[in-house]
C-alpha cells in the first residue's frame, strides 16, 4: 500500500509535497528553475547532497535544460505533451532514466542516490541514475586470503558487486533479481543465479523467505542470514558468507544462489553444506595432489578445534592409563601444584585466549596482531611461572586455536568455538563416555540441519541421492577433468559441468 500517493498535473502541488516530506533535511538539494522562452516552463530537481553525482547532474541535466534548450531555439510555450518529451529527450542527455508517478518510488530513488526531475504539467517524475556516493572501491580480500587466485574483494556498493560477478560469468542466463527489504532502510537486495542450472524450488524458497522479512532496517548481510536460515537455534551457519567474487561465481556455476546486500562487503551463498566450509576457491587453482593434502589437513584441524581440549581432560583426569607411562608422568608433573581442576583450568585459559583474539580484532592494523601474539605469550608464560596454569594446558589451547585457523570460513569456526565447551563439560563430568555422548549429540544435531532443503551433512549423509558422486569433491579434491557433474545444488536436468577426455589423451605425440 502506498504511503504518499501519486503525482498530479499540478506542478506547485507536487513541489509542496516534496518540500513537506523533506522538511528539516538540509542534505537534500531542491531547486526550481525556468526553461524555454516566454511564457516560461518550469523544472524542479531534487537529490541528496554527496549521494548523487553533482557534476554529472550539472552537465547532463541542469545545463542542458537551462542553456541547450534555448540555443536550439525550441521556444517552449505552455507545456504540452510534445514539449514534455522534448525536455526529457533533449534536456536530459543520459541513457539511464526512467519515470514513475508514485511518490513512494520517487522518494526511495532519491534516498538511494538518484535524482528526480519534475516538469511542469507532467504527472510523472523523471528518475536520473546519478549515484555518486563515496565508497572505498575494490579492495583486497582480508578474511579469505589465498596464495594463487584473484585478490579482489566485494565492496559496499551493490552494483560494483554484481559487476564483479558479471566479469567472471559472461552468460545471458546469469540473472539478477533485485528487490528492497526493510521498511525504513529500503535496502537493495539482489539475487544472482544462472537460469537453467539453479533448482527452481530452491529459488522460489529463497524469494519467498526474503519477501516475508518485515523489519525496520537491513544494515548488513548478516541480518538477512539470520532471518532466512532454517534453524535459528543452531550455532552452525546455514548460509555461506564470502567476500570473494571468485568464490561467489564458482558457487553460481554449481547451481547455488548468491544474495548481495547493499552496504555490505559480504555476500551470502545458499544453499550450503558443512563440506562447503572446508573448501576454498584456491583448491581448484592448484594441482589436485597438494590441495587434497591441504583439504585433509583442514578436516583434521576442524576435528581438533572441537575435540582436543575435551580429549585432554579425558586422558588427564579420567583415563590416564590410556597414555604411555612416561607421558602420563610428564602430565602429572606439569600439573603438580596447580590449584585449579583440569577442566576449570582449561576453560579459564581458553576464555583468556578468546578475549585476546577479540582484543586483537578490535585494535587497529598491526597493533591488533601484536597484542594477540605478545599478550598470549606473556600471559601464558606468566600464568605457568605463577603456578596457576600447567604448561600442557597452554600447549593444548594454542594447538586448538591454530587448528581453527586452518578452516577457510570463520563462520564455521565460530560454531566450533561454542560446541567445544559442551564436549569439555561432558568430558569433565563423565570421562570418555561423556566425550562420546557429546560427539553423538553434535552429529545428531548436524544430521538434523538442512539448508533450503539440502542435508547439512551431505555428502557424508544421504550421499546416495546423487549416486555418491559428490564424495569425489569432499575429503579429497579430484583432478578437474574428473569433476564432470555439478554437485547436489544444481538442477538435475542440467548436471554436466565438464565434457572432455582425460587431459593426457589430448596431447598425444603422433
What do these coordinates show?
By secondary structure, this protein is an alpha+beta fold. The protein is 44% helix and 12% strand. It has 15 helices and twelve strands. The chain has a five-stranded antiparallel β-sheet with strand order 1-2-4-5-3, with helices on both faces. It has a five-stranded antiparallel β-sheet with strand order 6-7-9-10-8, sandwiched between helices. Helix 11 packs across helix 13. The longest helix has 31 residues, at 288-318. The radius of gyration is 30 Å and the shape is elongated. The protein starts with 10 loop residues before the first helix and ends in a 55-residue tail after the last strand.
Produce a short descriptive summary.
The protein is of the alpha+beta class.
H and E order: HEEHHEHEEHEEHHEHEEHHHHHHHEE
Q: On the 0-100 scale, what is the average pLDDT? A: 86
How would the global form be characterised? elongated
Q: Can you summarize the main beta sheet?
A: 5 strands, antiparallel
Individual helix count = 15
Radius of gyration: 30 Å
- How many angstroms separate the termini? 73 Å
Q: What's the count of strands? A: 12
Amino acid at each position: 500500500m502506498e504511503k504518499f500517493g501519486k503525482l498530479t498535473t499540478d506542478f506547485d502541488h507536487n513541489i509542496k509535497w516534496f518540500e513537506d516530506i523533506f522538511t528539516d533535511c538540509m542534505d537534500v538539494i531542491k531547486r526550481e528553475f525556468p526553461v524555454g522562452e516566454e511564457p516560461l516552463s518550469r523544472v524542479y530537481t531534487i537529490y541528496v547532497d554527496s549521494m548523487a553525482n553533482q557534476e554529472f547532474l550539472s552537465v547532463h541535466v541542469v545545463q542542458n535544460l537551462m542553456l541547450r534548450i534555448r540555443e536550439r531555439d525550441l521556444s517552449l510555450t505552455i507545456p504540452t505533451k510534445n514539449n514534455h518529451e522534448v525536455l526529457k529527450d533533449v534536456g536530459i542527455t543520459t541513457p539511464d532514466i526512467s519515470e514513475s508517478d508514485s511518490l513512494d518510488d520517487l522518494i526511495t530513488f532519491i534516498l538511494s542516490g538518484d535524482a528526480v526531475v519534475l516538469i511542469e504539467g507532467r504527472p510523472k517524475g523523471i528518475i536520473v541514475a546519478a549515484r555518486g556516493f563515496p565508497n572505498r572501491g575494490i579492495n583486497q580480500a582480508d578474511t579469505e586470503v589465498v596464495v594463487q587466485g584473484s585478490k579482489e574483494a566485494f565492496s559496499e556498493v551493490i552494483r560494483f558487486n554484481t559487476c564483479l560477478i558479471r566479469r567472471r560469468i559472461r552468460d545471458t542466463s546469469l540473472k539478477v533479481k533485485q528487490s528492497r527489504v526493510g521498511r525504513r532502510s529500503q535496502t537493495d537486495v539482489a539475487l544472482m543465479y544462472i537460469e537453467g542450472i539453479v533448482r527452481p524450488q530452491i529459488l522460489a524458497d529463497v524469494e519467498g523467505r526474503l519477501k516475508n522479512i518485515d523489519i525496520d532496517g537491513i544494515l548488513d548481510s548478516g541480518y538477512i542470514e539470520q532471518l532466512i536460515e532454517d534453524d535459528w537455534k543452531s550455532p552452525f551457519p546455514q548460509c555461506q558468507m564470502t567476500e570473494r567474487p571468485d568464490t561467489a561465481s564458482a558457487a553460481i556455476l554449481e547451481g547455488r544462489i548468491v544474495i548481495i546486500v547493499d552496504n555490505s562487503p559480504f555476500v551470502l551463498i545458499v544453499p550450503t553444506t558443512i563440506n562447503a566450509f572446508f573448501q576454498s576457491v584456491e583448491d581448484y587453482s592448484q594441482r589436485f595432489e597438494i590441495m587434497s593434502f591441504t583439504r585433509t589437513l583442514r578436516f583434521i584441524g576442524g576435528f581438533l578445534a572441537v575435540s582436543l581440549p575435551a580429549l585432554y581432560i579425558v586422558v588427564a583426569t579420567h583415563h590416564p592409563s590410556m597414555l604411555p607411562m612416561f607421558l602420563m608422568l610428564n602430565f602429572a608433573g606439569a600439573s603438580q601444584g596447580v590449584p585449579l581442576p583440569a577442566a576449570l583450568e582449561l576453560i579459564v585459559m581458553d576464555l583468556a585466549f578468546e578475549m585476546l583474539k577479540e582484543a586483537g580484532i578490535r585494535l587497529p592494523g598491526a597493533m591488533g596482531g601484536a597484542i594477540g601474539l605478545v599478550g598470549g605469550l606473556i600471559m601464558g608464560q606468566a600464568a605457568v611461572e605463577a603456578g596457576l596454569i600447567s604448561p600442557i594446558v597452554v600447549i593444548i589451547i594454542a594447538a586448538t586455536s591454530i587448528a581453527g585457523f586452518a578452516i577457510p570460513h570463520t563462520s564455521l569456526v565460530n560454531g566450533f568455538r561454542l560446541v567445544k565447551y559442551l564436549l569439555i563439560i561432558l568430558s569433565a563430568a563423565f570421562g570418555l563416555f561423556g566425550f562420546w555422548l557429546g560427539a553423538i549429540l553434535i552429529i545428531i544435531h548436524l544430521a538434523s540441519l538442512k539448508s533450503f532443503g539440502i542435508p547439512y551433512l551431505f555428502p557424508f549423509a544421504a550421499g546416495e541421492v546423487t549416486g555418491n558422486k559428490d564424495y569425489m569433491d569432499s575429503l579429497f579434491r579430484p583432478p578437474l577433468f574428473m569433476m564432470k557433474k555439478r554437485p547436489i545444488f544444481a538442477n538435475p536436468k542440467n548436471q554436466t559441468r565438464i565434457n572432455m577426455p582425460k587431459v593426457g589423451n589430448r596431447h598425444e605425440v603422433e
